[in-house]
Amino acid sequence: MMGNQQQMSKRTFKSKFFLWVKIFIIIYCGAGILLYYLQDKFLLHPKPLPLEINIAINRNENLNIVRFYSNTPKPKGVVLYFHGNMLNISHYAKFADNFTINGYEVWMPDYPGFGKTTGVLTEKKLYEEAQQVYKLANTKFSKDSIVIFGKSLGSGIAAQLASTKDCRRLILETPYYSIPALFNYYAPMYPVSLITHFKIPTAQFLLEVKVPVSIFHGTKDEVVPYSNAAMLKKVLKPGDEFITIPGGGHNNLAEFIIFHQKLDSLLNY
To answer: What's the mean pLDDT in 180-189?
Structure first.
């Protein structure tokens, strides 16, 4: 009798154990599938605007660039500003003042699907359109008066551009080591390097950048962890700098005096 009860208990335990294993596998696989198909929605948050003035790349694609004029009759140069993953240029226009007050024009492009820019959003297309922005700017400004700036998502795009084109300086705000490395922070249980659509290996690009590089990152960044950005220190060359802003978040570095003091010095040296 006792033996039968023990056998029944073992069978019950095994049944429950395998049931929970099945449930875990279903949840794990289900969440992984959702991550694969919804990752672009996590990474990208575009908002289109009515079409107005665009640069026609081809019959099906338009590239929109908003140009913010400097507060001086003769600008010192131009800042090519590659923004983050939210909405469109209108969300980042307020940051143009950080450069125009220092005598620079700011050229801020939108990505495909963002604002007035149309076309299919791919990593290759992000790089190609950045090249187009540089080419247009270089018709008006010399290479040594072009500053390439990238914020958040745009930091990797800016780094790629600076790795292939001459400029005065590369400045990155709240950058990431790479998209897979960033996703791995949030979902370490998945093979993110295999399933991420976008790679954007910022660290790899920085190895090829010959001009001075300055990086701003806050210790309280809630989107790109400080630890992720700090890995970029190992690929910086002598003379480059990583500026840590204690208490700084992902979207509020412009509220810190140290950010403005350092940025102003970079733009006016």
So the answer is: 79
| Confidence class for position 26, pLDDT limits 50, 70, 90 | low
- Cα angle 179, 185, 190 (rounded to 5 degrees) comes to 85
Q: What whole-number distance in Å separates Cα of residue 116 and Cα of residue 189?
A: 38
- State how far the Cα of 160 lies from the Cα of 177, in Å rounded to an integer: 13
Is the Cβ–Cβ distance between 202 and 175 less than 8 Å? yes
Mean pLDDT of 173-179: 96
Q: How many other CB atoms sit within 10 Å of the CB of residue 257? A: 8
* 110: nearest Cα among 89, 129, 94: 89
Assigned architecture for domain 44-267: 3-Layer(aba) Sandwich (3.40)
Going from N- to C-terminal start, the domains of the chain cover: 44-267
Tokens encoding 115: 């604002």
Asked whether residue 2 carries a pLDDT value surpassing 80, the answer given is no
- pLDDT band, residue 37 (cuts 50/70/90): very low
Residue 233 and residue 241: Cα distance in Å, rounded?
8
- Mark out the alpha helices in the chain (DSSP H runs): 2-43, 89-92, 97-100, 123-138, 153-162, 179-186, 192-195, 202-206, 226-230, 257-267
Cα dihedral 132, 137, 143, 144 sign: negative
